[in-house]
Amino acid sequence: MNFLAHIYLSGDNDLIKIGNFMADGIRGKQFEHFPEDVQKGILLHRFIDTYTDSHDIFRQSTKRLHEKYHHYSGVIVDIVYDHFLAKNWSIYSDEKLEDFISRFYNSLHQNYDILTEKTQGLMPYMIERNWLLSYRTVEGIHQILTQMDRRSKNTSRMQFAVAELKEYYTEFEQEFTLFFEEIRKQAQNKLISL
Questions:
Q1: Residue 153 confidence (pLDDT)
Q2: pLDDT tens digits for range 120-133
Q3: How much of the chain, in percent, has pLDDT values that exceed 90?
Q4: What is the DSSP string of 8-60?
Q5: Which is nearest to 188 in space by CA: 122, 58, 92?
Q6: Domain edges within the chain
Q7: Residue 136 near residue 87, CB atoms below 8 Å
């Protein structure tokens, strides 16, 4: 799961969303100085990642890419799954995607002081280019994968994975749909237990 799914799976609490969003850059117990709800978001993020990476459906999606993209396959599928969440948003939420994203961006601004430095640095680019909304189109996914490929000094070749997305579009969408029903339930249960 990538940014959009992590935020969506956090429920309605802005601080849990923020913790879940910025959790990748927080190692070990470094999260313990954050407010309690941010901590819950970080722990939820870790749960979602562990659950996702070990799930048979997610692995089925990554196998399709592994020969060409190796250990970047999981990252690509995370982004591809965010595409299908954005594309099919009205199935999962009564709120318009644009409004959901706008509220999240506003919450980042309102809680700027508790964000990690990495998140503070990322935020202007994310908002200016509206990454979360760009997931809705294949062209947007291509732009995101190209940016990520640049960060790997073009060693990941992720920008070319749009070809596989197009070729196996139906299969990826079916896998996402099945998987997302399961991760939604698992994330809701985890939130209750936190």
A1: 78
A2: 999 999 999 999 99
A3: 89
A4: HTTTT-HHHHHHHHHGGG--TTGGGGS-HHHHHHHHHHHHHHHHHHT-HHHHH
A5: 92
A6: 3-193
A7: yes
SS (H, E, C) 91-120: HHCCCCHHHHHHHHHHHHHHCHHHCCHHHH
Contacts of 44 (CB under 8 A, 6+ apart): 9, 10, 16, 19, 20, 187, 190, 191, 194
User: Residue 160: how many CA atoms within 13 Å on its side-chain side?
Assistant: 8
Amino acid at 57: I
**b or e along 30-49 (b: 16 or more beta carbons within 10 Å of the residue's beta carbon)?**
ebeebeebbbbbbbbbbbbb
Task: State the pTM of this model.
Answer: 0.94
Closest C-alpha to 187, from 38, 1, 23: 1
What is the distance of C-alpha 24 from the center of its chain?
11
